[in-house]
Amino acid sequence: MELFEREKSEVAPPSPLAERMRPKTIAEFSGQGHLLGKGKFLRSAVEKGEVPSLILWGPPGCGKTTLARIIAQAAHKDFAAFSAVTSGVKEIREVVARAKTNLKLGKRTILFVDEIHRFNKTQQDAFLHHVEDGTITLIGATTENPSFEVVSPLLSRCKVLTLNALTEEEIKKILERALLDKEKGLGGLGIEISEDAAGFVAGFSHGDAREALNTLENSSMITPQDKDGRRSITLDIAKEAMQKKSLLYDKGAEEHYNVISAFIKSMRGSDPDGALYWLARMVEAGEDPLFIARRMVIFASEDIGNADPAAISVAVAVKEAVDFVGMPEGWIPLAQGVTYLACAEKSNASYSAYLNAKEDVVEKGALPVPLHLRNAPTGLMKKLGYGRDYKYPHNYKDAKVSQDYLPEELKGRTYYAPSGRGYEKTISERIKAARKKQ
Fold it and tell me: Residue 122's closest CA among 86, 160, 84, 94?
């Protein structure tokens, strides 16, 4: 049996480059300086060997699994790992039994659960007692917000650490290390990559080291050798290997603001086609879908307002749907929301009304609240006239009564002027009727 296993391992294909280049120590790890920098929480905990149960929350390829392995090795603990996609309560019980055996031998166990958000409540509850009594140290990894996806009792027993997507510079360093490493990487193959190709791979990997290394490996496979046996990866080769088109869109530069501006203005101009095009530009370039959804929520109030009061509900529902579904399917609710907002009646009356009110606040300061609008919770306040002469609208016909609600200095001031479009036409009629009674 051992001979068979040995022969099978000898003919087994090599591991993918991304797996071979997986860091083994904190010193080799790229990114997450806010957690692993000198004196930072996680680095100090690992160095002391006193790691609490953790939830590692971050985007794909930022190092969650690698970090869990490094923590276990540095803390000299047994490491058990499984994915919530393929494992269940049965596997949890097996790991707990293994952990209890380890305890008798004086060794602690770290249980790493990838995609912990995919466990249901019952499965997550199965960890609780064993995390609480110290049988296992749990490290869960998730790309979803733990506040929504991890049950509260388990969340309260773990420290949540947020990992960031790797920067382009960090990705470039990972690529460079892979090209130079002769033992685990491509260092012995005479491969180099042009600066623009490295920039493309780093930019369009969107902070995902695994995708960047996969693209580098695929690029090396399709790059022909020159007469000296060397291979030079060009931009065109990198594009072919990644199978993505280079879109002129930098999330931190001018084009980002140009595209989002065109997106908003297309919706404001009631052009669903233009809005959909700019939406697709952002989504296909890897823009954070929640950033787009937040802009839609703002737009619904700023540019549609009470002309269509349902618009804000639609926009918030889109945000919740995108957050719940995630990508790549998140574009579906985004597209529905964009077409609704673009076609809705428009009014910035409530937006403008606030700016008008703010102008008076800034210019005139904190004007005193009229006595009849003040609460009078004490006898002294009542003697001073607080609340006196206040007219309770529900005591009057149609719950409307003539009464001033602004400071004396602003008496008669009008801020909100409904546009008369959509539902604001109804609002305008209501305001006119109410003002006639004052």
Answer: 84
> Would you say residue 90 has pLDDT above 90?
no
CATH topology of domain 254-343: Zinc Finger, Delta Prime; domain 3 (1.20.272)
Both tokens assigned to 113: 């659960």
For residue 224, the number of C-alpha atoms closer than 13 Å in the C-beta half-sphere is: 3
C-alpha span between 143 and 150 (Å, rounded): 12
- Beta strands (DSSP E) in 101-239 are 109-114, 137-142, 159-162, 191-193, 231-233
Q: How far apart are alpha carbons 136 and 294 in whole angstroms? A: 39
Q: What is the mean pLDDT of the chain?
A: 85
- pTM (two decimals): 0.56
Question: H or E segment at 11?
Answer: helix 2-11
Interstrand relation of 191-193 and 231-233 (parallel, antiparallel or unpaired): parallel
Please report, for the chain, the start and end positions of each structural domain, with discontinuous segments joined by +: 31-162, 168-242, 254-343, 368-436
Tell me the pLDDT tens digit for each residue of 396-418. 888 878 888 888 888 888 888 88
CA-closest candidate to residue 210, choices 57, 360, 30, 359: 30
Per residue in 359-409, pLDDT tens? 888 888 888 888 888 887 888 878 888 888 888 888 888 887 888 888 888
